[in-house]
């Protein structure tokens, strides 16, 4: 019997679609000696919920699920219908997977105790960031953080399981729902991006080992709040304009972050007179993106401290966020930490 070796390069009729998210997770499972498959399954659960939310966002204009829901969340922000839908989808996926003992969500006032004392992980999530942009067809996203619980498996959860600094994350990521849908995540060994292929219903590795340029030409900030900035921030933005950097601000955190990660840039949401503690949430927005940017070679700060070192004191704690290419962030940090006299000079 004649046996021929497989020669895939002989045919030009079919292109390679690449490695799927599921296969990639399995290949990387050996990176976690403390885990026995639960973290891998948890990432799959998040990917499944992301596929469902992707479907909902794609048909928002046809299914009358755009616009406001008519209620406000704990932040005092008006909930959009898709906020509620995305929250339900992720809650169901995380609770039914069996790996999670508790969930912190932007859309919930308190910690969701799943009463699953055998679960090893706590998830903090913003189910749909920037959802008000849905009605005008602008990119939105999901942001998530995963922590290992501190208390012994089998016991009830405590505050120690929830109030962990970002440097305790075992995984973090985001999903970007845009011209294409992408899932980007890290488990502390670099970051990788996967693009969703609708016809196959799979995420495929499209951006392996992503790295943030050390410098960039983009700055992202809401310049409508200029009158409320501290002098150092105003001075930095003036400097950006003098150097003819590009101002790019979408108003969807995930979209702004993703662009700057790929192209090089800085995103700033500083403290203002109205929000002296900042606007973005530490547990389920800043921590996840800070871990991702550091894994990509960038950095994240509140102007004085590394984001990942901040000890949370409340569930929906806010923080200023300056994040992106390392050299750009360090430049802003240096201005903020200047002496009061130097600040006064910079403000002129």
Automatic annotation (TrEMBL):
SUPFAM superfamilies the UniProt entry points to: Carbohydrate phosphatase (SSF56655)
Enzyme class: hydrolase
InterPro entries the UniProt entry points to: FBPase_C_dom, FBPase_class-1, FBPase_N, FBPtase
Cofactor: Mg(2+)
Superkingdom field: Bacteria
UniProt-listed Pfam families: FBPase, FBPase_C
Residues holding Mg(2+) 2: 126, 129, 285
Reaction catalysed by this enzyme: beta-D-fructose 1,6-bisphosphate + H2O = beta-D-fructose 6-phosphate + phosphate
All copies of domain Fructose-1-6-bisphosphatase class 1 C-terminal, residue ranges: 213-335
Ligand binding (substrate): 129-132, 222, 249, 267-269, 279
Cofactor, free-text remark: Binds 2 magnesium ions per subunit.
EC number(s) given by UniProt: 3.1.3.11
UniProt KW keywords: Carbohydrate metabolism, Cytoplasm, Hydrolase, Magnesium, Metal-binding
Ligand binding (Mg(2+) 1): 106, 126, 128
Residue ranges of domain Fructose-1-6-bisphosphatase class I N-terminal in the record: 19-208
Subunit structure: Homotetramer.
Record NCBIfam families: PRK09293.1-1 (NF006778)
Similarity comment: family membership: Belongs to the FBPase class 1 family.
PANTHER family found in the cross-reference section: FRUCTOSE-1,6-BISPHOSPHATASE-RELATED, SEDOHEPTULOSE-1,7-BISPHOSPHATASE, CHLOROPLASTIC
Protein name, per record: Fructose-1,6-bisphosphatase class 1
Source organism per UniProt: Algoriphagus confluentis
